[in-house]
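Protocol step 4 of 6: structure prediction from sequence.
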Amino acid sequence: MTNGYLTYLDYLELRRRVEKRLASGNWLLLHTFIFTIGATVLGIYGFQTYYNPFDYFYVDPTMGHIVGLWSGILLLHGLWSYWYSGVRSTQRNEAIEREMRKHIEADDMYLGEDPKNLFRLHGLLNKDLRKRANIIPTLVFFIFLNAVIWIPWAINDAHSPYAWTNAPILILPLLLALAWNMWRKEQHEAHLQDQMEQLFGGQLVQENEDDYDPEREKRLSESEELVTIDEYMMKRKRS
């Protein structure tokens, strides 16, 4: 069973390396939260510093223009992330193929070179990465709605309260959608190990034990140095 578990560890390492080739939803999520905080700060500042007796809404229009421009930049970031993320099958398959080819040529996967197992691995990675990238479409949807509110308003009439009062309505639905997405991701991770056992267990584990080669216990660590699996596990435990 040891080599079966090493296969699981190899899969997690392979998935991590494939995801490094794709756009991460983490940066887009961070940008979204920074935008929310920044727009709030600009709105408060614009309200406190601006006074115009001929303007019925006392928020500096300049702040509205800044937030409108920023919402456009955020939308571009979201579209870029979507295009180069694991959501798109083209990007996803290309990243998987490149990383698997590198591992096969280096002969450093416990799955070996059995075509059946490699096809199974490709299919599992494809499905796994698509589900893990689901946060990006969720973010892009709300970012698009946000841009629809801010950009036309900033161009046409930054003196009205429309964007300042309507854009915050998106915050609660966004938080609920992100919470749902995180729950689904946790459920998916909980079933991943069972999927690995079903797809690569049994006969594969027996074959790996029969064909055991000490040299194949060497694998790449995150620091790109060759280590044994025991050393690798100790490093992961310390980190």
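Step 5 (inspection) to follow. The radius of gyration is 24 Å.
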